[in-house]
Amino acid sequence: MVKLKEFYLLSTEEIIDSFATSSERGLANREIRRRLLEYGKNRIIETNQKGILSIFFDQFRDFMIMVLMVATLLSFLMGEVADGITIFAIIILNGIMGFIQEYRAEKSLAALKKLAAPKAKVIRDGKIEKIAADELVPGDLLLLEAGDRIPADARIISARGLQVDESLLTGESLPVNKSEKRLYAKNLEPTSQSNMLFMGTTITGGRAKAVIVTTGMDTEMGKIAELLDHDERVLTPLQKRLKHLGKWLVTVSILITLFIVIIGILKGQSIYQMFLAGVSLAVAAIPEGLPAIVTLALALGVQKMIKNNAIVRRLQAVETLGCATVICSDKTGTLTQNQMTLSKFYANHRINKFEAETKLKGIEKMLKIGAICNSVQLKEEEKEGPLSRVKRFFVGNKIPELMGDPTEIALVKAIYNYDFTLSKLREEYQVVAEAEFDSKRKRMSVVVEKPDKSKELWIKGAPEVIIEKCKYIEINGQPQELTPEIKEEVLKANESMAGEALRVLALGYRSFRERIKLKKVSGYENNLTLVALVGLIDPPRPEAYQAVKSCNRAGIKPIMITGDHKVTARVIAEDLGIISRRGRVITGAELKGIDDTRLRELIRGVQVFARISPEDKLRIVRALKENGEIVAMTGDGVNDAPAVKEADIGVAMGKKGTDVTKEVSSLILADDNFATIVKAIEEGRKIYNNIRKFIRYLLSCNTGELLAIFMGITMGLPLPLVPIQILWVNLVTDGLPALALGLDEDNDDVMAKPPREPSESIFAHGMVSKIVSQGVLIGISTMVAFLLAIFRLETDINTARTMAFSTLVFSQLFFVFSCRSEEHFFWQLSPFTNPYLIGAVFISALMQFAVIYLPIFSGFFQTSVLNTEQWVIVFILSTWSIIVLDFARYFSK
To answer: Are the CB atoms for 324 and 647 separated by under 8 Å?
Structure first.
C-alpha cells in the first residue's frame, strides 16, 4: 500500500484500483458499511467536549454552593445533624436541577451543530446522493463544484477549470489551480500536490470528480487537529449582559445579606442561626440558575425554529433576529417556488407558447442547446434499450430526477416532450470544452462534437449580453444577418416576455471550420448566430404573500434583490405587495453610477433591485447598515458569501446554497423559503420575550424573599423562615416553574410591534418597576402571614413560620402565571396553553405539601400541619398580590 502522503504519485487508474472503486459507479453500499466499521466516522476528534460527569460536578464548583458546603460542615461540627443533612440534601437536589438544565442545553447545542454539519455529493452504486460528510469513507467517489467545502482528503480523477482556496492550510489567499495529472516528484509538501484536495479547503471555480483517500484524523486537517481543537462556544450579547448582571447581583446580595446578618446579631439573634440564614439568603437572592435557563431557552427556541425549517448556526442570531429591520431576499426560489417551466419562446419573428410537440422549424436546435449547454446532473443514469424505446412509445418519456439550477432543469425537462433523453443527447453531442457561467459573464458556453465530428460552440445567457455578441439570427432553420431592425424586434420580444414576469435567456451557436483552442472557449464567444429567446416562469410561493404582509405589520422592510430583468422583478414585487405601482426599481447598471453617499439616501425609498451582482449586494448591505438598519441578507453562491457575512443576520439557502455561504451564515433555510425567515424572526422575538418573563419572575421572587427576612429582623421578631426553609423556597420555585416559562408559547402578538433596538436593556419597558412592586408585595404577604399567625391566631413559632413559608412559596407559584404576558392580564390567558407550566407548578406544590405533611420531612424543615383557617389565609395572601397588580395595570390602561 502507498504511504498516506504519496497518493499524488499514482495515476487515476492506479488510485481507482487501490481503493477498489469505480470511476462511474463509486462504491457498493455493502462495501461502504464495511469501510465505515473499519475506518470510523469522518470526524475530527474534539478533546474538549464536556462529559456527563464533568457537567454534574461543575454544579458544585459555584462559590455560593461551596459556602453552603462549609455551612453543612459547621452544622455537623456544632451537633446540628438535622440541619447538616437537610442542607446537604438541598445542595444535591440543586445540583441535580442545575445538571438537568445544563445537560439539556448541551444536548440541544450538539443537535444544532449536527444539523448545520456539511453535506457531500457522492456517487454510490451508480446513483448520485447527498450525504452527511461524516458518513464518507476512503474510496468514495466525490462530485465537487464551485462553492463546495472539501469534506476529506481526496485524489482528483477528473477536473475542469478547477481552482481551490487552500488558505485554511497554507495561509495563501490566492486560489490554486488543480488537475488530475499525475506527479512524479517524491516527498512533496501538501501545498505542492496539485492533484490532491484537502479537507476544509474550498472549491472556488470549476468542477471535479475525486476519490477519497483519507478521512477523519488521517487527513492533513486531522494531523493539525490540535490547532483547531478549541471551544467555539461564544456567549451571545444577552448572555454577556446577564453574566455581568449576575456578578452585580452577587455583590449586592452579599452586601444586603451581611447587613441583615449584622442587624440580626445586634437584635439578639443566635450567631449560628444568623450565619446559616445569611448563607441561605445569599443563595436564594442570587439567581445562579439564570445562565443555564437562558442558554436552554435559546437552545429550545432554536429547536422550534428547526421544525419550521430554520437552522440556526449561531445562538447570537436568535437575539439579532428580534431586532431585524430589513430582510434582503433573493427572488428565485426564496420568494418564488423555484420550479421553473419553459412557458414561451421567441423564434421566427414571433413569440410562441411552448407546448408539447410544438411544430416549428428550429425548435429542436433550441432545445438541444438548452439541454447540452447545461450543468444539470442525473441522479441516476437513464437506461437506453429496446424496452425503454417501446415504453416511451406507449406512455411517453418519463422525466428522471435531476439535480442542478432550476432554470437549467426546466430547459432539460423541455426536451422530454420531443422523444429526447438527456443521456441520449449527451452521447450524440459530446461536450469537449466549457466556459462556465458566472454572475459577471452572465453566460455559459460549451464546445460540442456533433455526430458528424464537426464542432460547434453552443451558448446561453442573459439576452442583453448574448444579442450584442450575435452577428446572425436563425430564421426557419436558416442563418440570416442580424440587421438593426431584426435586432430591435428581438429586444422588444425580450422586453415583452420579461414584462410577463418570465425569465428570459438567449440561446445561440457558432460553427467552426478552423481548428480551435479548447482551453480558450470564452475567446470564441462572438460572431454568434441567435437561435431563440426562451421565457421561463417561476411563480411566487403562496405563503410569501402573507409573509410580506407580516413584515410590513412588524415594521420590517422586505427588499427584493435579484439577478433577473428589471421588469420581471417589478411584476413579482408588485404581485407580492413589496412595492406599489409607483415604487422604484434600481438596476445593477444604475448602481454603478451612484456613489455610496447617494446610495445611502436612495436606499431609504427603494425595495427592489434588479440585475444585481454579488458585489452590488455587498454595497447594498453596507449602505443599509450605515443607515442604522439591522439587515438579514440571503445568499446561495460563492460570490454571495461576502454580503452574507457582512449582514447582521446572514441567511444561506439549505437546498441550493454552497458550503462557503453556509459557513459564513448565521441561519440556514432548509426549504429556501422567504416565509421561513419571517417565522424565524417571529420565533426570535418570542424567545427574547420568554427570557424577559423568567428574569422578571426570578428577580421578583428573590426580592420578596430578601424583603421578608429583612422586615422580620428589623421589627425585632424571630426569623420568619429558618435557613432550611429559605433554601427550599429557592429550590422549589426557581427550578421547574422558571424553566417552564422558557417553554411558553408567547401570548403577546410579537409581530404587531416594531423591532427592538439591539442596545435595548433587558429591563426596558418598566421591567424594574414590575420586579420591585411584585417583590415588595410578595415580601409583605409573607410577613403579614407571619404576623397574623403570631398576634392574631396566637400560634406557636413553627406554625407561624409554616404559614409564612407556604405563603412565600405559593405567592411565587401563583405569580408565575402573571409573568406569562406583559400585555395581557392573568385572567385573559388560558393556563392550559402551557401544560409544562401547569405540570411544574403542580410538582412544586406537591413538594411543598410533602415537607409539611410527611413526618420524615416536617422534622427537618421545622414545619407544622396547618388547619383550614390557616390555609385560607395562606391562599388569600398568596393570590392578592397578583390580583392587585394586574387590576392596577388594567385600570391604568
So the answer is: no
DSSP H or E run through 213: strand 202-214
Mean pLDDT rounded to a whole number for the chain: 83
Highest averaged pLDDT of the listed ranges 74-83, 508-517, 585-594? 585-594
Cell of 85: 443533612
- Average pLDDT (380-388) is 57
CA angle 21, 23, 28 (to 5 degrees): 40
Q: What is the pLDDT of residue 471?
A: 95
Residue 488 CB partners (closer than 8 Å, separation 6+) = none
Give the residue-averaged pLDDT of 567-571.
85
Beta bridge partner(s), residue 258: none
What cell numbers appear for 184 in the block?
512524479
To the query of whether residue 640 is one of the catalytic residues in this protein, the response is no
777 pLDDT band, cuts 50/70/90, is very high
- What is d(CA 256, CA 281) in angstroms, rounded to the nearest whole number? 9
End-to-end CA distance of the chain: give it in Å, rounded: 81
Average pLDDT (56-62) is 73
Asked if residues 184 and 178 have their Cβ atoms less than 8 Å apart, the reply is no
3-state secondary structure of 864: coil
Annotated catalytic residue within 330, 405, 616, 640 = 330
Q: Hey, CA dihedral for 307, 309, 311, 315, is it positive or negative?
A: negative
What region does 40 belong to: left with phi over 0, alpha with psi -120 to 50, or beta? left
**Cell, residue 28:** 457498493
According to the model, what pLDDT value does residue 397 have?
58
Is pLDDT above 90 for 157? yes
pLDDT digits (tens, 9 = 90+) for 271-311: 777 777 777 677 666 666 666 667 677 777 777 888 888 88
What is the separation of C-alpha 844 from the centre of its chain, rounded to a whole number of angstroms?
Answer: 35
Q: In 396-447, which ranges are continuous DSSP H helix?
A: 406-415, 422-428
Pseudo-torsion of CA 310, 313, 319, 323, nearest 10°? -60
Total residues belonging to the chain: 893
**List of residues 6+ apart from 647 with CB closer than 8 A:** 328, 621, 625, 631, 632, 633
**Dihedral over alpha carbons 579, 581, 583, 588 (to 10 degrees):** 90
Strand partners, 431: 448
Q: Are 311 and 652 in contact (CB under 8 A)?
A: no
How far, in Å, CA of 658 to CA of 118, rounded?
10
Query: What whole-number distance in Å separates Cα of residue 381 and Cα of residue 401?
Result: 10
What global pTM score does this model have? 0.70
Amino acid at 853: Y
| Percent of the chain topping pLDDT 70 | 86
